Amino acid sequence: KQEVTQIPAALSVPEGENLVLNCSFTDSAIYNLQWFRQDPGKGLTSLLLIQSSQREQTSGRLNASLDKSSGRSTLYIAASQPGDSATYLCASTSGYALNFGKGTSLLVTP
Amino acid sequence: EAGVAQSPRYKIIEKRQSVAFWCNPISGHATLYWYQQILGQGPKLLIQFQNNGVVDDSQLPKDRFSAERLKGVDSTLKIQPAKLEDSAVYLCASKTGGNYEQYFGPGTRLTVT
After folding, report:
1. Tens of pLDDT along A47-95?
2. How far is A103 from chain B (nearest CA, A)?
3. Could you say which residues from 47 to 66 on chain B have a Cβ atom under 8 Å away from some Cβ of chain A?
4. B110 and B88 in contact (C-beta within 8 Å)?
5. What is the pLDDT of residues B17-57, one digit of tens each?
């Protein structure tokens, strides 16, 4: 069974800093990896989807990388803003559905 | 394009009562999922539908949970009878198929007292 781990569990940074969130998975035979954002009391918003044949995806200030051989993905957030405060979840697909990590709770302070 | 719709948004019931949740996926999305998210955890798959057929329900507690997707569009998830440990957010998601993105609804927050 695919296990997905996210480190750190929580992170607090001052506004303007660049930061990296880490995700590791045990089964390298994944179809894709997806990063989500979850605001308190809300559903999940998809940020980036990386297919297994790709190495990275970029959207605005966000860049996600995928290294299947090492079972790792990172989400890089440039020039963080208070509006980036949320929980970030990564999820891999190696079968029918998504296998989620527990998330990283990010707080960006003004 | 309208997103995934879910109702109700919040529900409080006593243990041993029954409850039902409704989901309307994005138009044209053949695949529909129900996930359970317990506080502090990532979502866990309960059931996956492809059109109106069940693809995977291996993690659905079938003694108390049931789900259906009539006509391959809307879906309902029912819990009967509810237990305290069923307190969670129930998320519905849909996608067109293949290795494409899943889109999530706002969720239903269930509290069992």
Report:
1. 999 988 999 999 999 999 999 999 999 999 999 999 999 999 999 987 7
2. 7
3. 48, 55-56
4. yes
5. 999 999 999 999 999 999 999 998 999 999 999 988 999 99
Residue B108 to residue A102: CA distance in whole angstroms: 19
* Residue A80 Cα distances to A57, A61, A76, B9, angstroms: 18, 8, 10, 31
- The string over B35-48, giving b where at least 16 C-beta atoms fall within 10 Å of a residue's C-beta and e elsewhere, is bbbeeeebbbbbbb
The Cα-based distances of A99 to A3, A44, A78, A95, B41 in angstroms read: 7, 14, 26, 9, 12
